[in-house]
Design brief:
The chain has about 290 residues and is mostly helical. It has 2 domains: about 55 residues, no CATH class; about 210 residues, Collagenase (Catalytic Domain) (3-Layer(aba) Sandwich), CATH 3.40.390.10. About 55% of the residues lie in helices and about 5% in strands. The chain is built from 12 helices and 4 strands. A 4-stranded mixed β-sheet has the order 1-2-4-3. It is globular and about 80 Å long. It binds zinc ion. The site of zinc ion has 4 residues, from helix 8 and helix 10.
Length: about 290
């Protein structure tokens, strides 16, 4: 995540130039000069730069020591980063917390819960500093599991659910467990955030939109072959990964970040594909590729 995105500067720069220029031209012809146009150009550009200014301010805030301790204790990847990588990770956490909404349904939204989700986002985006989370979201916490009617239900099928448009629902208990046991390939935060990357084209097909289109067909083939292994019990991915291509991608992401050595050993092709996609090797924190 970047403070100033070049594309945004470009778009708003052009917009300010065109709108301001048009109004200035009209102003000159009406005999009131260019000042209204200049004001409009400034306003449009300032409007576009507002989120960058906000990030700049957020980045200047100190990172709480308690958050740092939590990250060290629960996110092995963060632990392995050097000082520069850690600072960038922390900054991404701060941006995420500032920009996303968090609500609880019968459960208190603690700082730890919010941090636990932000850590997942920072992890997924670390190798790609120019990427953003696909959209601003509300993260809605339930205390425990829930069913398809969104009722809390200890026997419900769901610990998390991401919608193409709408909130991401997470069981607070599952969020805590996901980070408390960091090497079991089961992390509801990483799972649901992975779905967001997949939803970007409004069609969860296991092909994340940010994937280079040239790689899509190879990725599809690889996914099909790996899903067969899941069905045959020859995969380190849990059986849920065979439910659909979208679930395969989400479960693969969980395993990629939580037990990269095992995934690299048992499924080298899948591991390499995910290294290329996220532009990092989670076995050696911060070693981004190419
Ligand atoms: Zn899922």
């Amino acid at each position: 995540m970047q403070i100033v995105r070049r594309a945004v500067v470009g778009v708003y720069g052009v917009l300010a130039f065109v709108l301001g220029g048009m109004v200035s031209w009209i102003g000159v012809r009406m005999g009131i000069g260019m000042w209204v146009g200049a004001l409009i150009a400034f306003g449009v550009f300032a409007w576009g730069m507002w989120p960058s200014w906000r990030r700049w301010r957020v980045a200047r805030q100190p990172f709480p020591a308690a958050w740092r301790l939590w990250l060290e204790a629960h996110v092995p990847f963060y632990r392995g980063l050097d000082a520069v990588g850690r600072r960038r990770f922390e900054r991404d956490v701060q941006f995420f917390l500032d920009e996303q909404r968090f609500e609880g349904v019968g459960v208190e939204v603690t700082e730890t819960l919010r941090l636990a989700v932000a850590a997942g986002a920072a992890l997924l985006l670390h190798g790609r500093p120019n990427w953003e989370l696909p959209a601003r979201r509300t993260f809605l916490f339930y205390a425990g599991r829930f069913n398809e009617d969104y009722d809390e239900d200890a026997l419900g099928d769901y610990e998390g659910m991401a919608h193409a448009q709408g909130p991401v629902i997470l069981s607070a208990k599952a969020v805590e467990m996901g980070w408390a046991v960091p090497h079991d390939g089961d992390n509801v935060v990483l799972h649901e955030l992975a779905h967001l990357f997949d939803f970007e084209n409004l069609d969860a097909d296991g092909i994340p939109t940010l994937l280079n289109p040239a790689s899509a067909e190879a990725w599809r083939r690889l996914m099909r072959a790996e899903m067969v292994k899941v069905r045959q019990g020859r995969s380190v991915l849990r059986r849920y990964a065979a439910t659909s291509a979208a679930e395969f991608f989400a479960v693969a992401v969980e395993n990629f970040f939580e037990r990269p050595e095992l995934l690299a050993h048992r499924h080298p092709e899948l591991f390499e594909a995910l290294c290329a996609f996220f532009n990092l090797d989670p076995r050696s924190s911060g070693q981004t590729q190419g």
